[in-house]
Amino acid sequence: MHRILFAISILFILISCQRDPAPNIPDISDIEVAVDIRRFERDLFQLDTNNIAAELTQLEQQYPHFSRIYFDRILRSRDSMVAPEGHPAYIRGFITFPSARQLYDTTQIVFPDMQPYRDTYRQAFRLFRYYYPEQPIPDVTTFISEYSVGAFIYGDNQLAVGLDFFLGKDYPYLQYNPNNPNFSAYLSRTFTPEHLVAKSLRPLVDDRAGQPGGQRLLDMMIHNGKKLYLLDKLLPSTPDSIKLEMTATQVKWLRESERAIWAFFLEEDLLYSAEWQKVRKYVDYSPNSPGMPPEAPGRTGNWIGWQIVSSFMERYPDTSMEALMQMRDAPTFLEQSKYKPTL
Q1: Which pLDDT tens digit goes with each residue over 178-222?
Q2: How many CA atoms lie less than 13 Å away from 247 in the CB half-sphere?
Q3: How many whole angstroms separate alpha carbon 49 and alpha carbon 96?
Q4: What is the extent of the structural domain holding 217?
Q5: In whole angstroms, what is the distance from residue 142 CA to residue 312 CA?
Q6: How many angstroms separate the CA atoms of 159 and 204, rounded?
């Protein structure tokens, strides 16, 4: 029945091939920012293991806030249950362990320097200052965690990037943990250098967006749509396929099927459903969207949410980014947006 409903809806769609629209970038010519990218993993693995305690102290002074998070929460090297031999000995073992050392060496081959990403970060941070003039400008710290943490935000908008999650789509992630769902093919396809900046900005965007206004599908769609809207504003020249973490073919399908997707949500009475297992794949990572054609990716609801937010902002262009993120009443937001699917 789902397939039939979708097919009926799709009959009314004029299929056309669209490219990412030309970016609409505000005037940021008077905004200058410094881009500070610090290579923690390099400083860590270059410690003198014959003088590990003193060198660790210096490293922790160089990275006071990040090192506490890294050693206490990621490696847990100060936890006596994890590291009964003590913090310095544990770190010595970690940076000399063959698999960790091989991973570090690989990250240095893939990322010999961060210069290729500096300009993209610079533009994103300038735009962040434009939309949030009172917020501190982020800086970036790189690290490795043996595939446990990809990116997070800490302190005053400081970004941390796990380089071991960006080693390329052909890197054998599944060989290291075949049972880890995070290494499924549809996810690890995006573990590439091209996705590094966008993925590392997501925790910053999440922080600005706060929590959704409810647990209904519409609440989650608009909440995630606002996050995509902000990410798009910070990375206006980045392809939508990167921002959506989908293939270009999937993005094309979304554009061509927008009206059919919206009709499906209405016909299946899903917008106001709060049954998480029923709606999860439309807004959370998934290889597919139940009831839609096989070529439909997961998170189709987020795409529609992005279009709703864009429609709202076209009607109310003077709305600040801060004010947009504070709006929590999804039904009212939808009504005010006057959203009508294209095609």
Answers
A1: 888 888 888 999 999 999 999 999 999 999 999 999 999 999 999
A2: 14
A3: 8
A4: 210-337
A5: 37
A6: 7
* Nearest residue to 75 (alpha-carbon basis) of 57, 94, 56, 62: 94
Question: What is the rounded CA–CA span in Å between residue 251 and residue 303?
Answer: 9
Residue with tokens 């504070």: 326
In which element (H, E) is residue 239 found?
A: none
Q: Is the pTM of this model over 0.85?
A: yes
Instruction: Give the count of beta carbons closer than 10 Å to the beta carbon of residue 28.
Output: 16
Q: Are residues 233 and 135 in the same domain?
A: no
- Residue that terminates a domain, selected from 149, 174, 201: 201
Report DSSP state, residue 130: H
My answer on whether 181 and 47 are in the same domain is yes
**Residue 215: CA count within 13 A, CB half-sphere:** 6
Structure tokens at 294: 């096989």
Q: What's the mean pLDDT when you consider all of the chain?
A: 93
Return the number of other C-beta atoms located less than 10 Å from residue 201's C-beta. 27
